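Retro notes, structure queue

What went well: the backlog is down to a handful. What didn't: a couple of records were mislabeled last round, so from now on we paste the full input next to the output in the thread. Example, using DUF1330 domain-containing protein from Algimonas porphyrae:
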Amino acid sequence: MATVNAVEPTPEQIQAFLDSHEDGEPVYMLNLLKFKETSTYRDGEQVSGETAYRRYAKAFGEMLRELDIDGIETVFGGRVDRFLIGAGADEWDAVAIVRYADKKRMFEAVSNETYRSFHFHRKAGLAGQLLIACDGSGMF
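Corresponding output:
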């Protein structure tokens, strides 16, 4: 089974996501994160990729509060410890699950000027990620 680690979605992936999720339905995003060993800031600052990504995550939370964007919450976040089934534990450094009230709220959060002002931390810190959209169907 092949996976492709990326930092940004393709236009086709965005359109498929928008077409597949019903308006007004919650979306859970499973984030599998791989950090750069050393960040790649344009100004040359060097910190760990995890530190750069933490700056992004902190700014994202502050933006949600400041702009009063509700309906978004981190359900879980933690470091990858080991694989119990399968292989590839070194492929991912952290996992997060974020719940968005709906796809409109998600794109509202990542499509504004404030978001663009700190998005560079994400790019500086991430080697790549898998961002897997899940519905709230309560399958299990």
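Agreed that this is the format going forward. Reviewer comment attached to the example: The chain has four helices and four strands.
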